[in-house]
From TrEMBL:
This is MATH domain-containing protein. It comes from Platanthera guangdongensis. PROSITE patterns: MATH. PANTHER family: ANKYRIN REPEAT-CONTAINING PROTEIN-RELATED, TRAF-LIKE FAMILY PROTEIN. Residues 37-164, 184-214 form the MATH domain. The lineage of its organism: Eukaryota, Viridiplantae, Streptophyta, Embryophyta, Tracheophyta.
Length: 214
């Protein structure tokens, strides 16, 4: 009876070790089953080193979607409010449009569970301009993020992704207003031999005042 109990205990311990090793191996070799589902996959390795080096904001490389260039922006300890992961989408290039052009974008941001292959996702819609950060200040709180049983932060690495659902340029008239500057200036122009001037030609003399040429 004692031998049977010992064998069962040993078997359970061995099975538990194998399951742990399988989970860790899966986490270290995590790949997305269907990458084409997303517009961009962003893996951050050695995240703790970025935090130790006081990297308050991490920015991804550029990716293309809907004919425009984008980046992801991640705050590992929260944007404005600490204790959370902040994740944003940013339009970085719209060369065919004025830099002040407005647009509306619908998107979905994802954080992968490396244990199961599932995701935590949030959808958003924003009106913005180039270089505006659009997304979620509280994508997930740090306590939940760092809990290894959730699979979001494994072996000091994590993976985010994005799907841009719709992008529409907003044709809004724009106007720039600035206060008028009162300038007091007198300019005298003495014309020599006025009667001898060629009447078929124009004559002028330039001067500058108030940072303008007159």
């Amino acid at each position: 009876m004692k031998n049977l109990t010992f064998k069962m205990l040993f078997s359970n311990l061995f099975s538990g070790r194998k399951e742990k090793e399988r989970t860790n191996r899966f986490a270290s070799e995590f790949t997305v089953e269907d990458p084409s589902t997303y517009d961009f996959l962003w893996t951050i390795k050695s995240l703790s080193k970025f935090v130790e080096n006081d990297e308050g904001m991490l920015v991804s490389g550029i990716f293309e979607s809907k004919g425009y260039s984008w980046k992801l922006v991640m705050y590992p300890n929260g944007n404005i409010v600490n204790g959370q992961i902040s994740l944003y989408l940013m339009l970085v290039n719209a060369s065919s449009r004025p830099s002040m052009a407005m647009f509306k974008v619908s998107y979905e941001l994802f954080l992968f569970d490396q244990n199961t292959g599932g995701t935590l996702s949030k959808k958003g819609e924003n009106l913005g301009q180039v270089h505006d950060e659009m997304g979620f200040r509280n994508m997930i709180d740090l306590k939940t993020f760092k809990d290894s049983s959730n699979g979001y932060f494994m072996k000091d690495s994590c993976m985010f992704s994005v799907k841009i659902l719709q992008f529409v340029l907003v044709q809004t008239p724009t106007e720039c207003v600035h206060p008028m500057e009162l300038v007091s200036h007198e300019y005298s122009w003495k014309i020599e031999n006025f009667s001898k001037l060629d009447k078929k030609s124009s004559h002028d003399k330039k001067f500058t005042t108030g940072d303008y040429l007159w």
